[in-house]
Amino acid sequence: MPAAVYSVLLDKYISLLSTFYTDVASPLDVPEKDSHGDIDLLVSNPIHPITTQALASALNAVSTISGGGTTSFAVPYPDFPDNYIQLDIHKCPPSTFRWELFTNSHGDLWNILGTSVRAFGLTANNVGFYLRIAEIEKLDRKKSMVFLTSDPDDVLQFLGLDGERYWKPFGTVEELCVYATRMRFFRRKTYLREILKANDRKRMGQRPLYRMFVGEWLPQRPGVGEEGVDEMVTRESVLEEALERYGVRKVYEGMLRTWREERAELERKQEGREVRREIVKEEMAYADAWIEASRRGTIVQEGVGV
């Protein structure tokens, strides 16, 4: 739909949904976008209980599809009978509403930032910001995650980015890309195609802004992400900084200790299984030899040939 139609409908549905939810917002959009496929809204803190059917009725939606916390409504396209627009409403827990608004704003910006921060043992999901324990990450990425915070402004400060600027629309794609490269963990080498992780390669195929940044914008700007880089900032130094800043050293040490204890126990069990397998092999070899000797009539029992 044209940007003008999108803007009118966005205001309309934010206003309408504000009668049902205390918190209603749309993630800041990608700059220079002249058309929109659908409308995305985040909601939280219902003012009173409401069913999907009741919400669909209020929106004049003709159909709905729900999944993963998001419900898609087919709502009327103004002045075009029998034409509809997809309105996606994502319900967030109150504790993560602002965080999800943060990570979903500016299109693929957080995906761009995420590629670099991952090299320093940091990551984010729909709940918050985490560090990964390197020793555990090699074998179990999920268990390696230590929660740090779900405060967007704190994370922006930690990343060395202008927090006030983040919450305003970027005027151009160029402005957005430059903003990303000002993160203190931004490193050009992490965007080399040959070392991109599987998820990043998938984004290259599905996310236009990410593909443009990695495949066009960055290659056309030699030196960006290399010049002026603080080589003293390493995964180990970031780990220490995060443990101190977020007060999670005891949690980190506890998770690492539990992991090592579990691994040691698994290794003991594995060794036990190996011993049992060897015993079984020996017993089977003995049984095979006994059967073969019996066949040949050479079994010796109590010193007498049988």
Number of helices: 12
* Overall pLDDT confidence: 90
| Computed CA radius of gyration, to the nearest angstrom | 29 Å
Largest sheet: 5 strands, mixed
Helix content: 40-55%
Shape call: extended
Neighbour order of strands in the largest sheet? 1-2-5-4-3
- Helical/strand content category: alpha+beta
Plain-language structure description:
The protein has helices spanning 3-17, 52-59, 97-104, 109-118, 134-137, 152-159, 163-166, 173-181, 198-206, 208-217, 235-246, 249-296; strands at 21-25, 38-46, 63-67, 70-76, 84-91, 122-124, 129-132, 145-149, 300-301, 304-305. It is an alpha+beta fold and 306 residues long. The strands form 3 sheets. A 5-stranded mixed β-sheet has the order 1-2-5-4-3, sandwiched between helices. Helix 9 crosses helix 10. The longest helix has 48 residues, at 249-296. The protein is extended, with a radius of gyration of 29 Å.
Brief write-up:
By secondary structure, this protein is of the alpha+beta class. The chain has helices at residues 3-17, 52-59, 97-104, 109-118, 134-137, 152-159, 163-166, 173-181, 198-206, 208-217, 235-246, 249-296; strands at residues 21-25, 38-46, 63-67, 70-76, 84-91, 122-124, 129-132, 145-149, 300-301, 304-305.
Note the topology.
Elements: H1 3-17, E1 21-25, E2 38-46, H2 52-59, E3 63-67, E4 70-76, E5 84-91, H3 97-104, H4 109-118, E6 122-124, E7 129-132, H5 134-137, E8 145-149, H6 152-159, H7 163-166, H8 173-181, H9 198-206, H10 208-217, H11 235-246, H12 249-296, E9 300-301, E10 304-305
Parallel strand pairs: 2-5
Antiparallel strand pairs: 1-2, 3-4, 4-5, 6-7, 7-8, 9-10
